[in-house]
Known about the structure:
Blueprint: E1 2-8, H1 12-23, E2 28-32, H2 64-70, H3 75-79, H4 81-97, E3 102-103, E4 110-113, E5 119-122, E6 125-126, E7 131-133, E8 142-148, H5 156-167, E9 170-176, H6 182-185, H7 193-200, H8 206-217, E10 222-226, H9 235-244, E11 248-251, H10 258-273, E12 277-280, E13 284-290, E14 293-299, E15 308-314, E16 325-326, E17 331-332, E18 340-341, E19 364-365, E20 372-375, E21 378-385, H11 401-421
Parallel strand pairs: 1-2, 1-15, 2-12, 8-9, 8-10, 10-11, 15-21
Antiparallel strand pairs: 3-6, 4-5, 4-7, 13-14, 16-17, 18-19, 20-21
Residues 8-14, 31-34, 36-38, 40-42, 44-46, 283-284, 315-317, 320-323, 335, 387-388, 395, 401-402, 405 line the site of flavin-adenine dinucleotide.
Amino acid sequence: MRFDVVVIGGGLAGMTCAIRLSEQGKRCAVVSSGQSALYFSSGSLDLLAQLPDGTPVEAPLAALPALAIQAPQHPYSLMGAERVATLSDEAARLLHRCGLSLQGGSERNHLRVTPLGTRRATWLSPQAIPVTPLEGELPWQNIAVIGIEGFLDFQPQLVASSLTQALGIKAEVAHMHLPVLDRLRNNPSEFRAVNIARVLDLAENLTLMADEVRRLAGDAEAIFLPACLGLEDDKPLAALQAAVGKPIRVLPTLPPSVLGMRLHQALRSRLQQLGGVFMPGDSVLRADIDAGRVTGLYTRNHTDIPLIAQHVVLASGSFFSNGLVADFDGIREPVLGLDVDSRTDRADWCHSDLFAPQPYLQFGVRTDSQLRAIRHGEPLSNLFAIGAVTGSYDPLQQGCGAGVSLIGALHVAQQIAAQEEQP
Ligand SMILES: Cc1cc2nc3c(=O)[nH]c(=O)nc-3n(C[C@H](O)[C@H](O)[C@H](O)COP(=O)(O)OP(=O)(O)OC[C@H]3O[C@@H](n4cnc5c(N)ncnc54)[C@H](O)[C@@H]3O)c2cc1C
């Protein structure tokens, strides 16, 4: 099977790269073995929230020169501040073309309210999430935080007490009881955000839910609910808001994340509309490499029929997604045997303080400044690596996971398009 580009991994990085290339008329295939980090994410996308030395970042683009000094191997430093600035805007436009309505911009971070009721700096957030400016407050002084009876993946008490403590606002807690959820509630392993959303998204359940939310909200000015609504889009939330007559925002729950899944679904739909091929549940097992080029990829489902492409993009994620594997002897990239930046001594992989930055989070496939992947010390001419499989950054401490994935994906898409234009 022949394609212009084969992407290994259908997370944020891989899908974005394939979408951009498909928009430019390339025939792309994405092979993706399992659920990506999006299914476990907050739904907000981080660009840069903190420098490696711990300095909080208010304006991500303005902080790039300082980042380049502190972390010269960071993917943003390799790409250069100017390119990161251009591509961060392009990323926001691409997400918009996918039908996603996001708030925020790359000039200045905003704060999103977390499921713990604390606030965390981020770049782009779904409209449904409550956010504040960096120095600002929520627009309401009296909020009802309403959980769902028996649903353990969201704790309204935590949210309410943190909001009261941090912002000095009144936050009342309540739990809705909705008989339509009784069947799910009887089986705790099924009583998860996504399954609840499948029930609550049904138009026939709107009145029942609106009546309960309105009753519990009392005189609150606004309502926070767990994100168990709106699997496909914000329409069920908008309908609920209209029926209740008050602003309603949702907070991420424990995974699976409805907000993250919605992001994935929007990317997947866009790719398929553009004619891209998505192969879920398949896994690239090995590759043929000849004269510094990847010449064929072999997958579990296509066995001995290779996928052949001009260019290959590795976007297989980090340890979480098996893009990197930790063995007794060291860290390895399992599909192509690429060079990995890591630490030799296992004792140096983790920090004993659980809350300290963890060294293993910075491990990843080595690349050059074009993000071509390096094997045996040399870049492979048609293989690029993007997103969480690459290293030299800490998505958690630096709050830059989604930005590195999106901007790296667009950087590589541009290189591939430029190479193909050459005679
Ligand atoms: C639990 C968790 C939550 C996070 N939350 C946030 C957040 O809220 N905001 C934020 O900005 N960042 C977050 N991050 C950081 C995150 O790493 C990036 O934002 C980004 O989503 C990573 O995307 P990716 O495409 O590089 O990798 P992934 O999302 O990990 O996707 C890699 C994909 O490749 C597939 N794959 C792996 N090997 C193969 C193979 N051999 N063949 C085929 N497919 C393969 C995997 O199954 C997976 O689907 C989170 C990370 C984790 C782990």
